[in-house]
Amino acid sequence: MSAIPRILVIDQADTPYREWATFEDVACYYANERVVEVQGKVIATLRGGHNRNGVQSIIEVPSILRVSGFIRSYKESGAIPLTRDALFKRDRCVCGYCGRKFREKDLTMEHILPEARGGRATWTNIVAACVPCNSRKACRTPEEAGMDPVYLPYVPNRYEGLILEGRKILEDQMKFLIKGVPKNSRLLIN
């Protein structure tokens, strides 16, 4: 069964909303007269009721929808959720200590500063790590273990966050999102 496509909603400044929109969300934007522009391909057609003249309401749902208004600042709208899947995608399934690529099932979420020593589960304190490196580092700092991370962890921006969600992203949506990904993002590494 294929995933139901979602719609990328952007504001008048080309800033994407933090969440992907559903068909129902799109219908609400039209009903509230907030649609400014449609972009991308039509991915679905919503058919409503008939008016007294017998004309049926129809909404062609695009892959990208620009709506009126502006998005609150990134900090106000909340951070990108740190999940196992998103972390492994951010880190490209590469162990943060040995630098080798692994399958997701062979990786762990590793605290750089261990939880037992006050380390928190944040984007900047967690890297993907293979089981042997995670065990070797144990409850020590990288300095104590002699295991400096091979890359720096970072907080993904809004564009990366939408990519990291793991949804089926359509080609025109990906082209839009990739333009907002910082040049130093690990998502751009081949």
How would you describe this structure to a colleague?
- The longest helix has 9 residues, at 23-31.
- A hairpin with a 5-residue loop joins β2 (35-50) and β3.
- It contains six helices and five strands.
- It is 22% helix and 22% strand.
- The strands form two sheets. Strands 1-3-2 form a three-stranded mixed β-sheet, covered by helices on one side. Strands 4-5 form a two-stranded antiparallel ribbon.
- With 190 residues, the chain is an alpha+beta fold.
- The chain starts with 7 loop residues before the first strand and ends in a 12-residue tail after the last helix.
- The protein folds into two domains: 8-76 and 158-178, no CATH class; 84-145, Orthogonal Bundle (DNA Binding (I), subunit A).
- It is elongated, with a radius of gyration of 21 Å.
Label this structure with key terms.
190 residues; alpha+beta; DNA Binding (I), subunit A; 3-stranded mixed beta sheet; 6 helices
**Overall domain count:** 2
What is the percentage of strand-forming residues? 15-25%
Q: List the secondary-structure elements in sequence, H or E.
A: EHEEHEEHHHH
Strand order of the largest sheet: 1-3-2
Give a short account of the largest sheet.
3 strands, mixed
Give the number of helices: 6
Count of extended strands: 5
Low-confidence runs of at least 5 consecutive residues: 73-77
Chain-averaged pLDDT: 90
- Helicity level: 10-25%
Using the alpha-carbon principal axes, give the shape. Answer: elongated
Structural class: alpha+beta
What is the CA-atom radius of gyration, in angstroms?
A: 21 Å
CA-to-CA gap between the ends?
A: 29 Å
